[in-house]
Structure formats: structure tokens, C-alpha cells
Amino acid sequence: MVSDDRRPLGALEAEVLEVLWREDRALTPGVVNDLLGTGLAYTTVMTILVRLWKKGLVERSKAGRAFAYRAIVSEPDLGAARMRSVLEATTDRRLTMNRFVDQLPAGELEALRVALEDLEA
Fold it and tell me: In terms of pTM, does the model score above 0.85?
């Protein structure tokens, strides 16, 4: 699971995770680089994948001379961990949650109501 004491994801880490979520299979750094289509150096992509592995967001397995990486944390789970981390960092969780809810668009507010009702059931 995601460790809350880790540094937040950078933009490139987020892009690489999106590729891994979309493909839902283990990918080598070269394949990830091709799917990114950004022209990054192979070593840059490899470094990002190693960082994600050290953060516990991906697993790796040997694939020839390289490693292949696969996301082990889903996008919703990562988002939930981020929200929990923000709440844990505030001195007034209730006020923080109230402000968050006050700023939700109507559709998302309704989705939150449904989620809370489901938890109560």
C-alpha cells in the first residue's frame, strides 16, 4: 500500500503511472517510453520507474536483462491515500472536510452522499 510519508508524485511520475494503469500489464522502461511518446531518455524513464517502485506504487519482475514494471496501486487508491494524507496534516480535520465539501460541484456532492449511504448500509 502507499506509504503516506513519501514525497508526492512529480508530473513525470504521474504520467508514467497513467501509462501503467492504462496498459494494466508489466512493461519495460523502453515500452513505457514509447507509450509516453515524449522523447525522454530511456534512463529518465528507468529512473522514474525505480522511484515508483521504491514508493511501493509498482512492482517489478525480471524481463530479460531489464525489469518490467506493473502498477500495484490503483488510481482511486492513490487518490484516497492523498486525501487521507492531507487530512492527517491539518490541525482541524472537521473544518478541512467541511471546506472541501462546500467546494464540491453538485454532481460530486451527490456521489459523496451515495458513498456515505453505502457505508452506513
Answer: no
pLDDT tens-digit series, residues 1-30: 444 444 556 889 999 999 999 998 999 999
Domain 11-71 matching CATH 1.10.10.10: the answer reads yes
Distance CA 106, CA 98 (A): 15
Greatest CA span in the chain, whole angstroms?
52
Q: What is d(CA 109, CA 117) in angstroms, rounded to the nearest whole number?
A: 12
Helix or strand or coil: residue 91? coil
The three-state (H, E, C) secondary structure of 6-32, written as one string: CCCCCHHHHHHHHHHHHHCCCECHHHH
Tell me the C-alpha distance between 121 and 116, whole Å.
9
